[in-house]
Amino acid sequence: MNRMKFLLAIVAMAWPVPFALVHAQEPPLPTKTEAPTPSPAGTRPQLNIPDIPMPVDPPKLVPDSSGTSLPRPPSIPALPKTAPALSELDAAFQKSPLAREAEEQRLHLEWRQLQNRVAHDPEVVAAKAATTTAKTDLERRIRLRAYYNIYYAHMRALASGPEIKSYLDGKKAGALGSLAQPRVRPDPTPRTSRDE
Questions:
Q1: 67 vs 187: CA distance, rounded Å
Q2: For residues 159 and 114, is the Cβ–Cβ distance under 8 A?
Q3: At what angle do helices 122-132 and 137-158 cross, to 10 degrees?
Q4: With contact defined as beta carbons under 8 Å apart, do 174 and 155 qualify?
Q5: Does the global pTM surpass 0.85?
Q6: Are 147 and 130 in contact (CB under 8 A)?
Q7: How do the domains of the chain map onto residue ranges?
Q8: CA 41 to chain centre
Q9: Least confident of 38-47, 109-118, 127-136, 147-156
Q10: Do 149 and 127 contact (CB within 8 A), yes or no?
């Protein structure tokens, strides 16, 4: 308890000192002075700005072209007076990637329609069923080749134009190419005299 009284006494003695220092550092309040008198109308107040000497000739931003010749800009080639023919413009737009993709889309759609028309043909159905009854892989690949030949022959017979026929030939080549086994020799090669 004595310690507490001692601490309170020290704090009470130290308290007025910082309070007096804080108040001693404030600036004095301004005294009441007269307001500046406004200048008469039309006169400007006097400013103390020193005069800056101006150069005699200001720098030129654009070169003087009165006595010297400037280099001439390169001449622009004249545009042709006639526009290309409409057939040339059509041919140029047919070669664009967007036109190629649209043509590919159209051919794919027609191919799918031909697939739907041929899918229920009895000869195609019989050839497809024969592929499931093969006993060996080689026999299955042979029957699948026969099926694809029949299938694409029927679609080619129903095709309307040369573009779709060439598209069908590409699809047929892709289907038959998927059946190839380049690493397997189905038939043994005959021995020659050099092999012995």
A1: 95
A2: yes
A3: 160
A4: no
A5: no
A6: yes
A7: 121-180
A8: 68
A9: 38-47
A10: no
Cβ proximity of 171 and 152 under 8 Å: yes
Residues 6+ apart with CB under 8 A from 71: none
d(CA 78, CA 63): 30
- 3-class state of residue 117 by DSSP: helix
What value does the CA radius of gyration of the chain take, rounded to a whole number of Å? 51
Do the beta carbons of residue 175 and residue 150 sit within 8 Å? no
Write out the DSSP string of 12-42. Answer: HHHSHHHHHHHHHTSPPPPPP-PPPPPPPTT
Could you tell me which residues come within 8 angstroms of residue 150 by beta carbon, excluding any fewer than 6 positions away? 123, 124, 127
Residue 4 identity (one-letter amino acid): M
Q: What is the distance between the alpha carbons of residues 68 and 62, in angstroms, rounded to a whole number?
A: 13
Residue 145's pLDDT band, with cuts at 50, 70 and 90, is very high
What single DSSP character describes residue 176? H
Cβ atoms of residues 122 and 166 within 8 Å: no
Q: Locate tokens 């009284």: which residue? A: 5
Is residue 45 scored above 80 in pLDDT? no
pLDDT of residue 166: 92
Taking each helix axis as running N to C, give the angle between helix 162-177 and helix 97-118, from 0 to 180 degrees, rounded to the nearest 10: 70
Angle at alpha carbon of residue 62, lines to 56 and 65, rounded to 5°: 100
